[in-house]
Structures are given as C-alpha cells and as structure tokens.
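Q: Can someone sanity-check these two? First one:
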Amino acid sequence: MVQRLGGATPGTRAGFARLAPRVRRAAPPTGGSLRDMNSMGMQAFESNPDVVAAKRRFGDVASPVPTDRRTPSGQFIQTPEYVRAAYVAIAYLGLRVGEYLRLKDTDLLPATKQVRVPGSKTAASTAVLPVDDAMWEWVRRAVPSPLGYKWLHQHWYRARQAVGAGDVRLHDLRHLTAQALVNAGRSEASVQNTMRHATASMTRRYARQRDRGENAKTMAEVRLASA
C-alpha cells in the first residue's frame, strides 16, 4: 500500500502543488553561537529518555517505502528511523495529525488487525480501520506516537527540505492517501469510507484532480504524435 503511495502520477504531483501552500523557510544560522545552541539543543533532545525509549521501541524494520527521493513519500526515508513508522502510519491510514496523536495502545486491535480511530472533526470521522498483515508491524510501532506535535512536525520539515519538497505539509500525507486510492481505481464510495469524508463531494475532488492529470498526459501524447 505504501509502495503505491510513492507513485508520482500527474494527478498526485498536481494535487500536491494545489493542496500545499507555501511555507516560510527557516532562517539560516548567522553566527557560531547560534549553531552551537542548535547543536546543544539537538544533543539534549536525542538524550531525552522518551526519545531513547522510542528508538528502542522502533528498532530496525524493513522499510515499505520507496527510496526514490523524487517521490512525495520518498521523504519518509529522510526521517529518523525511530520515528519513521509514525509518518508511514499517518499516510497508510489516511489520518489527520490530531487523530494520530490521540491514538493509544488500547486503540490497537491485534486479534482482528484493526485500529480504532477516535476521530477529530465529526462523529463520522470515528471509525475502526482494517490493517493489512504486511503493514501491521508498522502501525503497531507507530502507536502511541513516540513524539509530540512539535517534534513530529520538526522532523517532517527537515525531511522535506532534504529532498527539496518544502511545500509538502504533514497533513498532505492524508491527501496523498486519498489521491493514491483514487488514482488506483478504487470506487468513490470506498475512498469516502476509508477517508471518513462527511460528503461525497469531498472525495470527488481527488477524482477531478486525477482526471486533469490524465487529460494532460493524453494531450501531450496527442501533441507528440502529431508533431
């Protein structure tokens, strides 16, 4: 599933360009003292007991994401290994960031390979989502979140800067899920159910984006054929 999320189809690329607003880049260090402070801060963070425990909990696990840095989900491999499962789970389940951060150990249902999502917007956003066997270990390692909101975003910011994708917000992983499912040919009703959209029109926008991408590709082929 996550492998499929890495597909850089015209619809996916256009969707990211449309859905992700510009973010202000962090100002570069201007002096040695600032660099030293940043280094000291990272050392303190890395030695934090919670972070050390998170590293032990995540350990080494085979990555289900592509290694092509040019794809949106190629950013996963730029995140620290001990927190990478968090980003994989958000994208795989199509979660809002707030929903992911609210997940607890008790929301994991290992007997049936399901995750109980508490929801964060409407009553309809509360659901029990199935997890494929191949992805269960990633989801299990991601819940509960090893980091809070601030550092979850900070590591994602650094990852997207590393691959030159400064526009892609953490929330766009949810958009990527919906776009990938639509691009793969899943029905509107099934995508709406997985994404827990309140209305069909919310899901339909991804189909429109896919169609624009496919039309652009078709016209390019027609143009090349007649050139």
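And here is the second, same format, sequence then tokens:
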Amino acid sequence: MPIFQLIRKVLNIFKKYAYPDYIATKSVYQLYVEDQNYKCFLHFKELLKTSLLLSTEKIREHAINQAIKNDDQSNYYLEFGVYSGTSIKFFSKYLSKNEIYGFDSFEGLKEHWYGTTVTKGTFDLKKKYHLCQKMLYLSVAGFKIHCQFF
C-alpha cells in the first residue's frame, strides 16, 4: 500500500503544474485561521476607517513624546524585555534628564504567548549578546542607560 501513497503524492505534485488553475485543498487549520482573520477584520472594520496606521518607529516616537509630556522630570523610565536593545536605544535619544533602565534575562520566553505567533523560546539570544554579563551602563549623549541581567 505505501507504493500507492507515493504514486498519489507524485501525481498530486504534477497536477499543480499541469493545471495552472489548480487549487490545493486547504487543511482544517488553514480554514480556521482564515475564518479567524476574517472575523477579526469584521470586528475592527469600522474602527479602521478612522484609524491612523503608523510605522513602529512613529509609534515609539509618539509613546516617548507622550511620556515626556506627562513627566515631572523626577521619574525613571523602565523597559522590561530589552531583547536586542532597539527600542531602549531609540527612547534614550528623546530623554535628556532622566535615566532609562532595561531588564531582560536574554533567555527567551519561558512559555507560549497563546493567541499570538510568539512561541516559547522566542527572543532567546542563545548567550550571543555582546553586552557584559552583570550590568551594562551605556552613555548616549550624556544619558545613562542601565541594563540589568538576571
């Protein structure tokens, strides 16, 4: 029987190229994902008409500007989950008088983030980060960045 299954797989591969309009059947999971995406779209459809979609950099810029506007100049800024340091470096450019502290284990997630595509182990730098092991103090334009490793 395994020979017939092999022949069937080979014929199905040829079918894709022999018939340009051939559409492979979708798995139950693919159908589920499409259905969930469509339901999500319907849920946010009206909101999307009045939303302003921004790039990651613009969102970060807006967030730090709002934080600075609400700040009384005596607060510290904290980032939990530094990963590669992209956002903490970005935020440090906007802060002049305050300190920003970043915390991360650099060992990735300990469990899956259900409901997202982020799985266990994501953000693991596999001990290849080029920062010192105990504490990192950076100075960017006279601004101190502290990254605590734990």
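A (reply): Looked at the second one. Helices lie at 2-18, 28-49, 56-70, 86-92. Residues 56-149 form one domain.
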